[in-house]
Design goal:
alpha+beta, 15 strands, 6 helices, 6-stranded antiparallel sheet, 30% strand, 7-stranded antiparallel sheet, single chain, Penicillin V Acylase, Chain A, 17% helix, globular
Length: 299
């Protein structure tokens, strides 16, 4: 299970070292857990694929970050390949540097189906794909990544980057506005579609920023803000089943087959007594459905 569309701003915002907006697309029947700290790896904050037991994007209390997308190439699919989500969880559970982790991975990268992998820590960010050559250090800038190589100019990548660039430049990031852009279901013209080998019907289905069909679509949208102080804001909106555009944009009159789940770890000031963050969990179909938990979970 992987992300399928990631937009990120790295080291150019005056307040946030890293800003990420991402959509995860998957078959609706594949089980997953929403964003939370893992019981078996309490340093990791991420959703979890309950089939492969990896994740699509995550961060640790020490600001180690990773995200993965698949590289769409059905002609080279390996049915018995290991889960690409394990590439994330293995990195997040180690203390190996991001670059060293990717260097070590290259020897076994051919065993996986095609992937794009981002790994980072408090001082660096790197990109590697087993469909390309070499490890790339990410320089300050604004990037888009879907199911081809980094910054491949697919229509939805270019459209999303254009829409998010001004939002990511604001002093305070409007998370709801970012979710609105991640919810764009507009289909481009056929002559703007890539040819990845899945056929025209599936190219059309997969072409919007937010994907929806009867069996496959965007399962979650995420916004991650990593402040230069190390404080973290990680908000995930999770979907199950098919819903209309209006359902997603308003969270009202939900389609019977869809529920919306939110869990947020907002940026909050450090508690002088503990030196830790006091996160608030919010969930349900409206911001008023909330539960505040005491104690320090981020540090």
């Amino acid at each position: 299970m992987t992300m399928c569309l990631i937009f990120f701003s790295y080291n150019i915002h005056p307040e946030y070292r890293l800003i990420v907006a991402a959509n995860r697309d998957e078959f609706y029947t594949r089980p997953a857990k929403a964003l939370d700290f893992w019981e078996d790896e309490p340093e990791i904050l991420a959703g979890r694929d309950l089939t492969g037991m990896g994740t699509w994007m995550g961060i640790t209390r020490s600001n180690r970050f990773a995200a993965v997308t698949n590289f769409r190439d059905p002609r080279s699919q390996k049915p018995d390949a290991p889960s690409r989500g394990l590439l994330i969880s293995r990195f997040l559970s180690t203390n190996v540097s991001p670059e060293q982790y990717l260097e070590d991975l290259q020897a076994s990268a051919h065993e996986y189906n095609g992937f794009n992998l981002l790994t980072g820590d408090a001082s660096s960010l790197f990109y590697y794909s087993n469909k390309s050559s070499g490890i790339r250090q990410i320089n300050p800038g604004f990037y888009g990544l879907s199911n081809h190589l980094l910054d491949t100019p697919w229509h939805k990548v270019e459209k999303g980057k254009a829409a998010l660039k001004s939002l990511f430049a604001e002093k305070e990031i409007d998370v709801e506005a970012v979710f609105g852009i991640l919810g764009d279901r507009q289909y481009p013209a056929d002559d703007l579609l890539p040819d990845t080998g899945v056929g025209l019907i599936w190219e059309r289905i997969l072409s919007p920023v937010f994907v929806s069909s009867e069996s496959y679509g965007t399962r979650s949208s995420s916004v991650l803000l990593l402040h230069r102080t190390g404080e973290i804001s990680f908000t995930e909106r999770t979907f199950t089943g098919f819903a209309s555009v209006r359902d997603y944009l308003t969270d009202e009159n939900l389609h019977p087959a869809q529920t919306v789940f939110r869990k947020a770890y907002p940026k909050m000031p450090l508690n002088p007594a503990s030196g830790c963050l006091q996160p608030c969990f919010s969930f349900g179909n409206s911001p008023s459905d909330s539960l505040s938990l005491p104690g320090s979970l981020l540090k």
